[in-house]
TrEMBL record:
Gene3D superfamilies: FAD/NAD(P)-binding domain. The keyword Oxidoreductase applies. This is MSMEG_0569 family flavin-dependent oxidoreductase. It comes from the Bacteria. It holds the Pfam family Pyr_redox_3. SUPFAM superfamilies: FAD/NAD(P)-binding domain. Residues 1-27 are annotated as: Disordered. Keywords: Oxidoreductase. InterPro entries: Auxin_biosynth/cation_transpt, CHP04046_FMN-dependent, FAD/NAD-bd_sf.
Length: 463
């Protein structure tokens, strides 16, 4: 275990000297808290538990920072500015707060965090089953043996399995296919044109990466919205922060479920940050299509909705500018004015006979590769505790489930916009650590009165 003298020491006072020391929990050992997952969410919880002096273990399948290290492309960088990286006790301290860390810097940022406070992370340990009987502690079966814990925090991230539509099975065998999480760089792909399916953040950025490398790119455009990088002299993220957008809680929306499921706005932090304008890509030679609807041999069919999707993305970006204008007016802020966006390219209108945006023949277009930027699905099947809804989404309020002692962290919009991001995962971690601490204290008091602390710790919810 890490030296107990570090408990409660602000991380800022600790030196990033050596990497986090390897930690191996004794097989069969019991822990007050088990944290599953050693990404930014698991590390943040660990930091907050440490500050409260609560014993715990972090079980991580691979290595700290695994997702950033292995599932992002070579030119990947954050879309959120560095100043939003504010893990508990470890705010971004570099010299480019308004910039966007690249992949290797993000990994380093997490490694430094772990080096500073030496969390009890057991790397290379996968939790394969989590159970909880009516009485007694949680039981964790892992690749390093069985453990028990009074309380468990699931910090395994929201993006578990690549979601590839089954249409993919119908593509000709000669076409190379990969998911966005497997894409690294243009040079790794076979020669020829590339079709990217999906225009969430990954799809747009990968399409741009290929386009900038001179590859011929075809892009199936979905319904994701976009946001301008900057407006009236500031990054839009800075404006939205000043406007209190990131303080809005999910339950302040009429349909919190819909908020949690909606696609992120596309924009990029590449080369210091800029807009992603798919119309500009098209003007410069990228071929755009609507949503992919069918595959028949090498013939692909797309919905006639490209114009609708481009208009929608622009309308959202402009409506964000409207709210920034309103904020500037309301507070009498001295900000430069800026002309609004004018579309730089128009697709053929919907319904145009033989629309170039609804059909594509892979062979004639020389397409050798399809990149599926179609997102991820959750996989919590290893959790054998009945806390899920019909879609397999964990039912919770601010990460607290109906089963006392079981928590989630790092889910998109778990509490606010920043819950699934660097921006606010630390706030959620502090909240959960406070709740875990309170539950523990109540259980201790009741245990002292009844002599049955463990069973009570599982039975007494503290809100
Ligand atoms: C393409 C992309 C771009 C993003 N860009 C940004 C951005 O610009 N800014 C931003 O703030 N956020 C961004 N995010 C969102 C978010 O910051 C990341 O998804 C981040 O990785 C989430 O951190 P996490 O700790 O919650 O989960 P993860 O990083 O996914 O970590 C979970 C960890 O749990 C481990 N694990 C999983 N299952 C088990 C198990 N059963 N047993 C033990 N260990 C297990 C995994 O190995 C992993 O290390 C982006 C996400 C993606 C996918």
């Amino acid at each position: 275990m890490p030296d107990s003298t570090t408990i409660g020491t602000p991380a800022a006072a600790l030196q990033p000297s050596k990497p986090a020391a390897p930690y191996t929990p004794a097989p069969g050992s019991h822990h007050p808290v088990a944290v599953v997952g050693g990404g930014q969410a698991g590390l943040s919880v660990s930091y907050c538990l440490r500050e409260r002096g609560i014993g715990h273990v972090v079980l991580e399948s691979h290595r700290i920072g695994h997702e950033w290290r292995t599932r992002r492309w070579d030119t990947f960088c954050l879309v959120t500015p560095n100043w939003q990286c504010r893990l508990p006790g470890h705010p971004y301290r570099g010299d480019d707060p308004d910039g966007f860390m690249v992949r290797d810097e993000i990994v380093r940022y997490l490694e430094e965090y772990a080096a500073r406070f030496q969390p009890p992370v057991a790397e290379g340990v996968t939790v394969t089953r989590l159970r909880h009987g009516a009485h007694g502690p949680y039981e964790l079966r892992t690749t390093a043996g069985e453990f028990t814990a009074d309380q468990v925090v699931v910090a395994t991230g929201p993006y578990h399995r690549p979601a590839v539509p089954r249409l993919a099975e119908r593509l000709p065998a000669a076409v190379h296919q990969l998911h966005s999480s497997e894409y690294r760089n243009p040079h790794d792909l076979p020669e020829g044109a590339v079709l990217v399916v999906g225009t969430g953040q990954s799809g747009c950025q990968i399409a741009e990466d290929l386009h900038l490398a001179g590859r011929e790119v075809h892009l199936a455009v979905g319904s994701a919205p976009r946001v301008a990088r900057a407006y009236r002299g500031r990054d839009c993220v800075a404006w939205l922060d000043a406007m209190g957008h990131y303080e809005k809680t999910v339950d302040s929306f009429p349909d919190s479920d819909a908020v949690r499921m909606r696609a992120n706005h596309y924009v990029t932090g590449r080369d210091g940050g800029r807009d992603i304008d798919l119309r500009a890509f098209a003007r410069d030679g990228m071929r755009l299509y609507g949503r992919l609807t069918g595959v028949d041999g090498s013939s692909l069919a797309f919905a006639d909705d490209l114009a609708e999707h481009l208009d929608h993305a622009d309308a959202v970006a402009e409506s964000i500018k409207d709210s920034i204008d309103a904020h500037i007016d309301a507070f009498g802020i001295d900000a430069p004015t800026e002309p609004r966006y004018t579309p730089v390219w128009q697709p053929a209108p919907p319904g145009t006979p033989a629309s170039p945006h609804t059909a594509l023949d892979l062979g004639s277009a020389g397409i050798s590769t399809v990149v599926w930027a179609t997102g991820f699905t959750r996989d919590h099947r290893w959790i054998e505790v009945p806390v899920f809804d019909g879609r397999g989404y964990p039912m919770h309020r601010r990460g607290i489930t109906s089963r006392p002692g079981l928590y989630f962290i790092g889910l998109p919009w778990q509490h606010t916009w920043g819950s699934g991001r660097f921006e606010a995962v630390g706030r959620d971690a502090a909240f959960l650590a406070g709740h875990i601490d309170a539950s523990r204290r109540v259980a201790d008091v009741c245990g002292a009165l009844t002599g049955a602390p463990t069973a009570l710790s599982a039975a007494l919810p503290v809100g």
